[in-house]
Design a protein that fits this description.
about 300 residues; alpha+beta; Protocatechuate 3,4-Dioxygenase, subunit A; 2 domains; five-stranded mixed sheet; four-stranded antiparallel sheet; 6 helices; about 25% helix; about 20% strand; globular
């Protein structure tokens, strides 16, 4: 394990990346208000039957139809994944440790200050880094829901995600990786409160169940300040997917580590067996895996 060397910073940082971005949360609130106004207009009672009342009613219906059409065009339809997530919402995601290798400035280097960290594909290093992480492809999606407001999507929130490579090593910390930053990235939640990352399946290292770390920030601008977060937690990967992937070349060390750890013995997930952090997973080692988790905050 290397010393916690600072990450080289030769650019203008994440704040510069975000300087021209429009807040999607504000846009979502505007569109939501438009939908509510259209619905209210549609419920307005008709007139008494006079010519003036009929004319007014017709005009109102015409305006309502126009507003409704505009709202329908501008507001995306909720995906089946979001609909299911809202139906299951209610239990807030357990708070967990960020671990010793967060890379968010709270323990040594800070990748959040680097230009280029906002990205979907996190398999390769960016900036001064040049290494890429090898392994079985994994795409994971988090659906963020606001429990205090009826489980509406947290559009405009930001997620910083990171995890180890297939050898159980963390970029920015482990020996030979101090100048690399692969398997780390930030995404802004869309109007459905969802963020998706393209990565590789992490390995299992001694003492821990296979997992992915993440921090949720209220906004992209808040992602530059370590500690100012809405939630810090971890995604647990399913045993079936892990066993399948770890039987492939490159993951040999993970096989023995998996045999020594269970969700019930893991020092993070053992409180409840990871029931609220266990991802829904589909795929195969040959084709790659997808994982999804509802994150209620």
């Amino acid at each position: 394990m290397s010393n916690h060397l600072p990450h080289p910073n030769h650019d203008r940082g994440l704040e510069f990346d975000l300087s021209t971005m429009i807040s999607r949360r504000s846009l979502g609130m505007f569109l939501g208000a438009g939908g509510a106004a259209a619905a209210l207009a549609a419920c307005t009672p008709g007139g008494s039957g006079t010519t003036a009342s009929t004319s007014t009613s017709a005009a109102t219906e015409s305006a309502t139809a126009t507003a409704s059409a505009a709202t329908t065009t501008a507001t995306p339809t909720a995906s089946p994944t979001l609909t299911r997530a809202i139906a299951e919402c209610g239990v807030e995601i357990p708070e967990e440790t960020a671990g010793p290798y967060p890379g968010d400035g709270s323990n040594g280097p800070n990748v959040l200050a680097a230009s280029g960290v906002v990205r979907q594909d996190i398999t390769s290093s960016f900036g001064t880094g040049s290494a890429s992480a090898e392994g079985v492809p994994l795409t994971f999606t988090l659906t963020l829901l606001d429990n205090a407001n009826g489980c509406v999507p947290l559009a405009g929130a930001a997620v910083y995600a990171w995890h180890c490579d297939r050898d159980g090593r963390y970029s920015m910390y482990d020996s030979g990786l101090a100048n690399e930053n692969y398997l780390r990235g930030v995404q802004e939640a869309d109007v459905n409160g969802q963020v998706t990352f393209t990565s590789i399946f992490p390995g299992a290292y001694s003492g821990r169940w296979p997992h992915i770390h993440f921090e949720v920030f209220e906004s992209m601008s808040n992602a530059t300040a370590a500690g100012q977060v809405l939630a810090v937690s971890q995604i647990a990967l399913t045993k079936a997917a892990c066993d399948d992937v770890y039987a492939t070349p490159g993951y040999e060390a993970s096989v023995a580590n998996m045999k020594r750890t269970t969700l019930q013995s893991d020092n993070v997930f053992r409180n409840d067996g990871g029931i609220y952090q266990l991802a829904t997973m589909t795929g195969s080692a040959s084709a790659g895996y997808t994982a999804g988790l509802n994150v209620t905050i």
